Amino acid sequence: MSVSGVTGSPSRCCLRSPDRNQGLVCRQVSALPSAGRPKEKIGLCHLERSCWTVSIKKWNTQRTHLIKCAMDASYGDMASDSAGSAIFPRINIRDPYKRLGISREASEDEIQAARNFLISKYGAHKPSVDAIEAAHDKIIMQKFYERKNPKIDINKKVREVKQSRVVQAVTSRFQTPATKFIVKTSLAFIVIGVLTVLFPTEEGPTLQVALSLIATFYFIHDRLKSKIRALLYGAGAFILSWLVGTFLMVSVIPPVPILKGPRSFEVLTSLITYVLLWVSSTYLK
User: Rounded distance, CA 210 to CA 58, Å?
Assistant: First the structure.
């Protein structure tokens, strides 16, 4: 193939260039730059492929990094809020007092203080706040209902009576003796009571009452080892027991149909007196 001074072939071409000495000189050059060097051509192809592979990997890495940054920018606030909010550990406890960590005798100020403390600590977690508020409202409503409809707490009343000064002063004068001594005094006064019921006289149970007074002196002296104290305690216990028995029979205890007769009142009064004398002779110190 020859075009305006250039002769070419599929693999080579002839270039006619002017020369000062010889005129036109035909110089053959390869039509492809690397046609005569296949090894260099293959090396260049490998190099270009490696460059493209590295470029694609870098682009994928940058795209992954950009996507991650976008997700962090979109959900960063939400993640930080959920990570920083503490969950109330007693959120599933049903008892409102145990949920707030207070006793059932807690005052309204203590209830409010417990509620404020828990809200300040777990306020970032909405379910925890709802659980704390529900327990607080339930306790407040219960306290309001109890004030509106008060009920008598028997255990509390008994505890208050025991802690009163009068009761403590009285109970401090008594002590529990040995079991053998309690059995001995009990048998003695039971026998006196049976004699009073079985053999009442027209004048009343005078003999049985006298026996109960003597038994009181004896048992107090046997326990305290003091004649003066036995005399004073015995006489005082006898007078007080008879007065209490008479008052109970007149004002409190109704007539008992089992005991009939003209002296039934004196018999019942004597039985009450025996009980009080037994307590005095056994437990008084």
Answer: 120
Average pLDDT over residues 39-48: 50
Query: Which uninterrupted H or E stretch holds 91?
Result: none
Cβ 9 vs Cβ 31: under 8 Å: yes
| CB of 196 closer than 8 Å to CB of 205 | yes
Bridge pairing between strands 2-3 and 23-30: unpaired
Question: Distance between CA atoms of 245 and 253, rounded to whole angstroms?
Answer: 10
Residue 231: which residues within 8 A CB-CB, separation 6 or more? 217
Q: What is the CB neighbour count within 10 angstroms for residue 187?
A: 10
Is the pTM higher than 0.70? The answer reads no
On the question of pLDDT at 183 being above 90, the answer is: yes
Q: How confident is the model at residue 53 (pLDDT cuts 50, 70, 90)?
A: low
Cα–Cα distance between 199 and 221 in angstroms, integer?
Answer: 29
Angle, CA 281 vertex, CA 279 and CA 285 arms, to 5°: 95
Q: What contacts 129, CB < 8 A, 6 or more positions away? A: 119, 122, 123
Angle subtended at Cα 202 by Cα 200 and Cα 207, rounded to the nearest 5 degrees: 55
Q: Which residue has the tokens 């002017």?
A: 18
| Span 233-260, average pLDDT | 79
Angstrom CA distances, 163 to 156, 169, 223, 265, 284, stand at 11, 10, 28, 37, 20
